[in-house]
Amino acid sequence: MSNGDTTLTPKTSTKPKLERPRLYKVLLVNDDYTPREFVVLVLKAVFRMAEETSQRVMMTAHKMGTCVVVICARDIAETKAKEATDLAKEAGFPLMFQTEPEE
Ligand code: TYC
């Protein structure tokens, strides 16, 4: 400014606000055909679950329709869900694992 007036402009923040990436749930879905023992075997093999936890998760899905197996980053959730579903498919069972974003 030529008349000596000072113009004050607020300093804008230069730090970009990074959103935390969303977490995803892997859901075990119940069906009428896959044997209980096979569901437990897949939970132990793919998700490294202990016998007792696998039994509990399997029974929850059996009774309620679905059960959350794990909550993790999207790429890991999708890879694990596909690996587990493919394992069942190869064995001839309709067992399904799905992923969905957490609230
Ligand atoms: N409902 C199946 C049965 O009675 C067992 C089962 C449990 C299948 C959980 C899928 O996600 C599942 N043989």
Automatic annotation (TrEMBL):
This is ATP-dependent Clp protease adapter protein ClpS. GO terms for molecular function: peptidase activity. The keyword RNA-binding does not apply. Involved in the modulation of the specificity of the ClpAP-mediated ATP-dependent protein degradation. Residues 20-97 form the Adaptor protein ClpS core domain. Pfam families: ClpS. Keywords: Hydrolase, Protease. Gene3D superfamilies: 3.30.1390.10. It comes from Shinella curvata. Binds to the N-terminal domain of the chaperone ClpA. Belongs to the ClpS family.
